[in-house]
Amino acid sequence: MILQNSIELIQERIAFIESHYPHMVEYKKALEMSAQALEKQLKAGGENISSNEWITISERLPNPETYVLLSFENVSIPVIGRYEQDKDGGAFYAGDEDETLTSQDMYVNAWMPLPEPYKESEDIARNNR
Hints:
Elements: H1 2-20, H2 25-45, E1 55-56, E2 67-72, E3 79-86, E4 89-94, E5 108-113, H3 120-127
Helix pairs in contact: 1-2
């Protein structure tokens, strides 16, 4: 139920962005990637994204160049993104985009690792039980 509700919220947000803010292409792409990842998780086995808890950015930053699920202090829907370090410190980016999330007025407050990708061999093993 939680995953399905999240997918529906993301789809509503995408429709809103398309109709009111068509110039926010990067944000729309990040939302679409998030919806696809959640749909795969839902199809692969259920509601539990992972047993992991949200990790605040004050507690720890994700490993650079690793895709994670990002939570925001000012946006209600999580997005898949990454953290990159540079000479000025570091920044969060949505998906594979080059524009930082803060430049889009999106402020990350927490993150969590993504679930492992679906593997057909796991499905075969589960069906053979």
